[in-house]
């Protein structure tokens, strides 16, 4: 049964990778972003996901069991935080949303409050600078804070 589940998941992830690749290819990008531009990142992730999914299809795991107790709760909380991130990304902006979600994830996995905030700030600001200055990709600044600031 485990083998079938792994292979089924692998095929589903290959389908997801194909969907992401098609969406990335169909992105309307101004000529100034070529040859790398914003199309390369999702396309690279789709290729990576397809490759790893193929490994799951060809070499499924031998034994497996569903997580229970505290680990299952942590996994559900991680999923809830990622959904929250997707919902708040445009409304609150990249930096505040990333800071809050990364700090919450760090706390969830046992970091102290100080380490969680430092990690959140470093990752949010560092990735913002990487995308905006390094790759030239604009990130949302948020619509909710725009009215306040």
Summarize the structure.
This protein has 149 residues and is mainly α.
Structure description:
The protein has 149 residues and is mainly α. It folds into two domains: 1-66; 67-148, no CATH class. Helix content is 75%, strand content 0%. It has six helices and no strands. Helix 1 packs antiparallel against helix 2 and helix 3 runs antiparallel to helix 4 (94-108).
Can you give keywords for this protein?
149 residues; mainly alpha; 6 helices; flat
Give the domain tally: 2
Strands, total number: 0
Percent of residues in helical segments?
Answer: over 70%
Number of helix segments?
A: 6
How large is the radius of gyration?
19 Å
**SSE ordering:** HHHHHH
Cα end-to-end separation = 55 Å
Task: Name the beta content range.
Answer: under 5%
Determine the structural class based on helices, strands and strand pairing.
mainly alpha
């Amino acid at each position: 049964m485990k083998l079938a589940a792994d292979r089924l998941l692998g095929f589903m992830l290959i389908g997801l990778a194909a969907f992401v690749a098609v969406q990335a290819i169909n992105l309307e990008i101004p000529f100034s972003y070529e040859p790398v531009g914003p199309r390369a990142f999702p396309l690279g992730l789709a290729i990576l996901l397809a490759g790893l999914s193929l490994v799951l299809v060809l070499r499924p795991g031998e034994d497996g069991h569903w997580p229970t107790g505290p680990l299952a709760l942590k996994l559900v909380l991680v999923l809830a935080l990622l959904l929250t991130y997707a919902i708040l990304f445009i409304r609150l902006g990249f930096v505040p949303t990333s800071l809050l979600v990364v700090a919450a994830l760090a706390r969830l996995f046992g970091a102290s409050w100080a380490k969680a905030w430092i990690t959140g700030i470093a990752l949010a600001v560092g990735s913002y600078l990487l995308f905006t200055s390094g790759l030239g990709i604009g990130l949302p600044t948020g619509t909710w804070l725009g009215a306040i600031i």
